[in-house]
Structure formats: C-alpha cells, structure tokens
Design brief:
47% helix; binds adenosine-5'-triphosphate; 10 helices; 15% strand; binds magnesium ion; 253 residues; Rossmann fold; three-stranded parallel beta sheet
C-alpha cells in the first residue's frame, strides 16, 4: 500500500492487483481509503485496483487457464494507463502467485528481521548457521525469473528489504545482515534500505491512510518518528525507478 501511494504522490499513475484475495487485506485497505475519501471529502490519490480470486473451476488445468486469462486481462487493462502496477501476492505458494512472479519487472520481498524469516530465502543449518541451499520460495523465484527471461529477454530486479527493524537487539540485526549479504550474490537479489518497527503502520490501516497522507495539520509539524518513517518509504521507492528518481527525488506532494 505504501509503495503504491508513494509512487502516486511522486506523480506516477499506478494500478494495483490483489492476488491474496482470500485474505484480502490490500483490497480492504483500499476500500477503507475510499470510505475515508467519501466521508472527509479530502482528495487522496488512489490506485486503480483489481482483486483476482483463486479460480473455482473443476480441474487444475481449468483453474490455471481461468486464472491466467484473468491475470493477463488485468495486466493489459491496468498497463494501458499506468506507469506502475503494484501486485500483492499471498504468503503461500499458488498458481496466481507464480504467474505474477513470472511477469514481475521488480520483485520486492519484505523480510522481518529474524532467522525465522530468513528461512523464507535460505535453508540454514541451526548448529553451524551454514547455508544449505535456497529455500522453496527462492527456488520458485529463480524458476519464474528464468521463465520471464526466456519469454521476454528481460531480467527481473529482485529486491529484498528488511521490515520491522527493532531499535534494540543489535546482535541479531547484525547476524541477519551478514547472512543476507552473504547470500545476495548467489540468490541474485539486492538489498534495499529497510523499515523500522512502527505502531503507526498498524493504526493507519483502519482509515485506509498511509504515512504519505499525513498532513501537517493546524500548525502541528510531523513528529520525528513520522518524518523518519516517510524517509524510509522514500528510500525504498527510489530503488524502484532509479533512472527516473535518483538524484531528483522531490518531496511527496
Ligand atoms: N514496519 C512495521 N511496523 C509495525 N507493524 C508492521 C510493520 N510492517 C508490517 N506490520 C504489521 O504486520 C502485520 C502484517 O503485515 P503485512 O500484512 O504487510 O504482512 P504480509 O507479509 O503481507 O503477511 P501475509 O504473508 O499474511 O500476507 C500488519 O498488521 C502490519 O500492519
Ligand atoms: Mg500480505
């Protein structure tokens, strides 16, 4: 949600697709945003949004065919009038998720700052902390990335970002950072600056707002924590379109 709104506020046209329709958090977030706009009459930029549910067709082949058709239609429709399409994928493996990965120009994998989450990328020996190999998810990314390159001749840019960084527990932070640096070359991702753990992320969901929508109201300047958090979002978004954004990142409007 923050990525989509940040790009909108930088002046890009943005579409969004929710592939995690059963959980539906992204879609609910956007619905809450529309409710807020209706009741407050504030103008807030919002992406052109679509949700694609998993197919209920009788056979696996039928399901995949239907999902491919809907996904391609959504990409075509949103791609016609937007600079970016932000796609949210479910945390579990699914045909729709694999399809989205195979079309991604950029893949952002947010990772909580712990060894449990590192397991999403690599299989680590608990005794020696030696890396045994890529995880099931990393193998899926590699497979879909190969597929994309075969079909389009273009590579995917894989970005791993650390989320919910704690201000304490520096030793754990360093240990996770070391493993990530060690594996980034082998797995083929680059590390982007992360986000700190901030209660405000959870609070804003209820109104459909993001950190980029908070105005300096009634002479109240943004708090240091809000300013820092906005800067973190900006630092991530710059990584998405470096040729357009680096060196000339204007303030969010
Ligand atoms: N940096 C953060 N600080 C505080 N809370 C956060 C932060 N990032 C995420 N959260 C909270 O953690 C919860 C899960 O976040 P989110 O839905 O983005 O995770 P997810 O990786 O998409 O999960 P899933 O795999 O279930 O889809 C939400 O309540 C969200 O507000
Ligand atoms: Mg999710």
């Amino acid at each position: 949600m923050h990525t989509a709104i940040a790009l909108l506020r930088l002046g890009y046209k943005v579409g969004s697709i929710d592939l995690d329709a059963r959980q539906g958090t992204f879609t609910r977030y956007i619905k809450k945003r529309f409710d807020f706009i209706t009741s407050s009459r504030d103008h807030l930029p919002s992406p052109a949004h679509m949700a694609i549910p998993r197919s209920q067709a009788d056979t696996v082949a039928g399901q995949e065919e239907e999902e491919r058709t809907f996904f391609n239609l959504a990409l075509e429709e949103l791609g016609r009038s937007n600079h970016f399409i932000v796609i949210d994928t479910p945390g579990t493996d699914s045909h729709l998720s694999r399809l989205a990965h195979s079309h991604a120009d950029t893949l952002i994998t947010p990772m909580n700052d712990s060894f449990i989450d590192l397991d999403v990328l690599v299989d680590i020996d608990p005794e020696t902390l030696k890396i045994k190999g890529p995880s099931v998810y990393a193998q899926m990314v590699q497979e879909q990335r190969r597929r994309k390159t075969l079909c389009t001749g273009k590579d995917m840019d894989w970005i791993v970002m650390r989320n919910r960084l704690a201000s304490l527990n520096a030793r754990n932070k360093e240990a996770v950072a070391k493993v990530l640096n060690d594996i980034s070359g082998t797995l083929g991702f680059r590390l982007a600056p992360g986000f700190g753990e901030r209660v405000i992320f959870r609070e804003m969901f209820l109104k459909g707002l993001t950190l980029l929508d908070i105005k300096e109201e009634k002479g109240q300047p943004l708090t240091l924590s809000q300013l820092t958090a906005r800067q973190e979002v900006r630092n991530l978004v710059v990584e998405l379109a470096p040729e357009k954004l680096k060196g000339r990142v204007k303030p969010f409007s």
